[in-house]
Amino acid sequence: MRTRNRQTGTLIYTGSADDFGLDDGGGDTRWYNICDAHGSCVGHRTRTLALAFSASPIDWCEPCAEFYRSKK
Fold first, then answer.
1. Angstrom distances, CA of residue 23 to CA of 5, 20, 56, 63
2. Count of domains forming the chain
3. What is the tens place of the pLDDT at every residue in 15-71?
4. Cβ(44)–Cβ(27) under 8 Å?
5. Confidence at 6, pLDDT banded by 50, 70, 90
6. Radius of gyration of the chain (CA)
7. Which end of the chain, N or C, is less surrounded by CB atoms within 10 Å?
8. Is the pLDDT of residue 7 over 90?
9. Which pTM value belongs to this model?
């Protein structure tokens, strides 16, 4: 799934560890968010958590957070 984030304007990809070829951490990180602009990623146990975090990359992507803070 791909969404454009309203806070930063960046594309955020949400998908399973298998979708991205990443380790699922024994089930602890079965779902991921990836910031397309910066390559930052964060893993989650559930799809619901991953979808919730996709709406706020400033909480897990440091370059997005810096950009957002500089706009204030």
1. 25, 9, 23, 24
2. 1
3. 999 999 999 999 999 999 999 999 999 999 999 999 999 999 999 999 999 998 898
4. no
5. confident
6. 12
7. C
8. no
9. 0.90
pLDDT higher than 90, residue 8 = no
Amino acid identity at 11? L
Place of tokens 């619901």: 48
Q: Which residues of 11-40 are buried (b: 16+ CB within 10 A; e: fewer)?
A: ebbbbebeeeebeeeeeebbbbbbbebbeb
Contact 30, 16 (CB under 8 A): yes
